[in-house]
Amino acid sequence: MSQAQLEAVATLGSRDEEGYGHRSLGNYERSLGRSRESLTREDRPRTFTMYGREWDLFPEVFAPVYSPSTRVGVEFLGLAEPGSQQGGSFLEMGCGTGVVATMALFAGYDRAVASDINPMAVGNAVANADRHGVGHRLRAVQGDLFSGLAADERFDVVFWSSNYVLAPADYSYRSSHERAYVDPGYHAHRRYLSEAPLRVTPTGRALLHFSDRGDVRALYRAAEETGRTLRLLAARPVREAEYGDDTVEHLLFEIVPRTV
After folding, report:
1. Which is the most buried residue in 3, 13, 214, 240, by most CB within 10 A?
2. Percentage of residues of the chain with pLDDT beyond 90
């Protein structure tokens, strides 16, 4: 698929200029409802199986069993095959259970850092890396985006599977768990667009996993306003059977500084 075709896919069905709430899939209140339901479901497991491995799921941490986004992220990055990557360093923003960062180590990255603003998620990522024998190669840090890292740290891949649903700019989170579902005013996205390219090695890549549950046009505007260009690398329609038969277009962007 050409870049022009990918761009057309990305903008198809995006919300209008008023932003949040004008497409049922992207309604922020619906996403907050999913956050609450994920925490209180009677069938919420303490462990789950993914890619033939057992993983811990701590309370108050985003549950990959209720959303396809973790699997899609792993597959976008080519991490499902052990040994598919040739060394290097990997940073996962918003790591949750740490599945993606741990899979990056299985795939061949030399080291990984898993970062999350939720302290429970930081502990969860450590537990899963230790469970699978790669804890000595994974460091987990608590921070708001890059705030938990040293100023001089750089990575070959920086990746965030974002909280892509747009909420009103004045919305106040009621729990750390809600941060995995919505982003008020796209404040976090603007910061990531601005800062992620500054955190890569000279040949590294800053990547963003988004979807058309989010406001793609607003994301492109934010990139323009922060001096960034979005290159759409992949698009994949996924049926989210856990919450009905909705089909969501998952998108993988590379973020690069705008040169002109």
Report:
1. 214
2. 85
